[in-house]
């Protein structure tokens, strides 16, 4: 079954609809890793590792 809720070309801010109340935390984390809320979701999916310095 294929879902069209979000697509790789959608912007990161659209993930907020999936995370609800937890979005505030995840938005902060993404921003700290250098993402912009205007980046496409495909950029997030392309990350191979989440190493923190």
TrEMBL record:
What the entry lists under Pfam families is as follows: DUF4327
Tell me the superkingdom of the source. Answer: Bacteria
Q: What is this protein called?
A: DUF4327 family protein
């Amino acid at each position: 079954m294929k879902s069209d809720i979000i697509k790789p070309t959608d912007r990161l801010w659209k993930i907020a609809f999936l995370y609800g109340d937890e979005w505030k935390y995840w938005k902060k984390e993404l921003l700290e890793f250098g993402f912009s809320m205007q980046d496409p979701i495909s950029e997030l999916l392309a990350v191979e590792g989440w190493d923190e310095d």
